[in-house]
Amino acid sequence: MSKILFTAWKDKSQLLNVRSEFYPSASYEGPDLRSHACATVEAWKLRGNVPHHVEATALLTDAILHDDAQHNSIFSIRATYSAAFCRFVTGLVDSKIHGQRKTMFQRAVDLGLPASFVELRHEATHREPPSLVVLRKASQRSLEWLWDNYWAGVDELGDVPIAEHNDKSSIGSGLSEILQKFSAESDPPQKKRKRDHDDVVATQLVSTCTMSDEGMQLLAISFLEGSILIESERKLGDPLNNAFKNWDPVLLKITETNPSFFTHFTEELANKLAFEPGNVSSTNAYAEALYLWLNHLSTSPPWAIHQPYFSHSYVNTACEQSSTHWTKMLSKDLKKKGELKTKPNSTDVSSKKKALSKNSTEVEANTTRKLRARGWEPLEKWDSRPLGISSIN
């Protein structure tokens, strides 16, 4: 017996029409129909059975349309973005909704959702709403994720073109080919040639990534395939100085043009270290190398400018979920780094207190001089009795 499937739309052509209104093709030059698409989804919700991906697309799009400072306050714009984004993420990763109890980070990993979305959702829910710049970028990335993971898979009826998104597997193959070629080459003899060569490789990788909305994530995964960053014959205790020297220029160049890559890269390193069964042993040379890469990215001076984008929350959570020798060491290192960053310097504090005290004394003396010049004198003893209370001798 065939299974009956109830949908909020009459037939698939209605869903495809709404998709084309949310995501018009590059050649479309007609009026903006996104508000009409949002109204259609709102009507569908009255019927029920609206997929979360469709509802989330409408909420995020409506938040973007609400982004008008001439008619709406900045606070209401931030609140609208935050509410739409939080509902989008929560509807996907909340374990209470999906049965099997998992952390939100685990659910995000299962769904291919960037872990930074879970972090931003936590910030928007429990702290101040993020800045407009962050919210706008997150909403745009969310709509791109929804296209790749829902709308692009809706079957065509013949007259609704799907946007030109390249096959992920072919993009991944192209990235791997570039990386394998670079890792197999010997370093050019001159520093200038080496720097130029690194720039060319980084440019090729970034250009390939732009073919997909998930390009940076695909690139991060490609770096960890095979023996690109970590030699397959590496032994426990072997230093990674040569690997850092060889790959840092390329990785830094990519991060400078695409800061999101650094977040994706650290998240993928943490996933490999924490969630691959083979990396549990304390004598595993590959796990040690992953630990050293994460430690290098979070502490080394060349990466200092990008370290604010390091996914501390995600990495710490991943380490807590999979307690091994290397994750414990990494958690300890990150905690120590955080303490050093927030711990005040006692000498600096003492000198600041002295400077403030000296400045306060000078101001008070100058004020007293000016008052005395005009016939005022300071009162030696202040009577703090309330009004209406006389003294009794």
UniProtKB/TrEMBL annotation:
Residues 337-369 are annotated as: Disordered. One of its GO terms (molecular function) is endonuclease activity. Residues 357-368 have a biased composition (Polar residues). GO terms for cellular component: Las1 complex; preribosome, large subunit precursor. One of its GO terms (biological process) is maturation of LSU-rRNA. This is Cell morphogenesis protein Las1.
